[in-house]
């Protein structure tokens, strides 16, 4: 498996609380991604990064922010968690090049009460 | 941005070939077809990808029709461990994958 870890793996929090999820890679890949997965929706891209301090929005970015200060770490922050953000969050990485398949982490299950 | 259509579920007998279809009738010339699978609640796993030609690797074969409007993923000898949700994804040289809801494959003993 690609060297990708996510922390925490499980989190329960309350509405209005800030939450930060961490994705860490040991592959030195340029691109990193955050997805959420909800029943009936497959995976949907939240934000992605194409280098240190370089990020862009995905299709469901509202309510989320990201930061990447080091190649190996990509943080996803929910400034004020809502129940609609209860989901499983996956981080992915890919290298540069045309055949940039993505490798996924184990996921973080977040419950917002 | 639904670019692909897949059957929601399929069954396959253990040891037989599993053929998973995907329609991508709006695919453009520079878009690749990727296949991933997700076992239970794990992160998706890359299987194979292709542009025009058929492709084969240690996991599967990918057959793309000549007009590129559809493709088939073939698992030559399905095992119980191949039970998973399989996603067919079409994307250009950008970095955004659009996952649909995939095909839930059940391999039956």
Q: Helix share of residues of chain B?
A: under 10%
What value does the Rg of chain B take, in angstroms? 13 Å
Low-confidence sequence ranges of chain B: none
Portion in strands of chain A = over 45%
Quaternary organisation of the protein chains: heterodimer
Biggest interface? A-B, 28 and 19 residues
SSE topology string of chain B: EEEEEEEEE
Low-confidence stretches of chain A: none
Order of helices and strands of chain A: EEEEEEEEEEE
Query: How many DSSP E strands of chain A?
Result: 11
Distance, first to last CA of chain B:
36 Å
Please identify the structural class of chain B as seen in this structure: mainly beta
Question: What is the radius of gyration of chain A computed over CA atoms, rounded to a whole number of angstroms?
Answer: 13 Å
Account of the 3D structure:
The complex is a heterodimer of chains A (113) and B (109). Chain A is 0% helix and 57% strand. Chain A is built from no helices and eleven strands. Chain A has strands at residues 4-7, 10-13, 19-25, 31-38, 42-51, 54-57, 65-70, 73-78, 87-94, 103-104, 108-112. In chain A, a hairpin with a 2-residue loop joins strand 5 (42-51) and strand 6. The termini of chain A are far apart. Chain B contains no helices and nine strands. In chain B, strands 1-9-8-3-4 form a five-stranded mixed β-sheet, with no helix packed on it. A four-stranded antiparallel β-sheet of chain B has the order 2-7-6-5, with no helix packed on it. The interface between A and B is medium-sized, with 28 and 19 residues.
């Amino acid at each position: 498996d690609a060297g990708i870890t996510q922390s925490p793996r499980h989190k329960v929090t309350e509405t209005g609380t800030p939450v930060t999820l961490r994705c860490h890679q040991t592959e030195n890949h340029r691109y990193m991604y955050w997805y959420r997965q909800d029943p009936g929706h497959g995976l949907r891209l939240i934000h992605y990064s194409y280098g240190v301090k370089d990020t862009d929005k995905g299709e469901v970015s509202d309510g989320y922010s990201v930061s990447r200060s080091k190649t190996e770490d990509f943080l996803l922050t929910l400034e004020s968690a809502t129940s609609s953000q209860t989901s499983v969050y996956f981080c992915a990485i890919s290298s540069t090049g045309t055949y940039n398949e993505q490798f996924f982490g184990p996921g973080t299950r977040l419950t917002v009460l | 941005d639904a670019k692909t259509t897949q059957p929601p579920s399929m069954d396959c007998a253990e040891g037989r070939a599993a053929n998973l279809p995907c329609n991508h009738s709006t695919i453009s010339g520079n878009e690749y077809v990727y296949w991933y699978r997700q076992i239970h609640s794990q992160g998706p796993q890359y299987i194979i990808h292709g542009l025009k030609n058929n492709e084969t690797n240690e996991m599967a074969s990918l057959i793309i029709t000549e007009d590129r409007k559809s493709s088939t993923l073939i698992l030559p000898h399905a095992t119980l461990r191949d039970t998973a949700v399989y996603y067919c994804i079409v994307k250009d040289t950008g970095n955004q994958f659009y996952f649909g809801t995939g095909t839930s494959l059940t391999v039956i003993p």
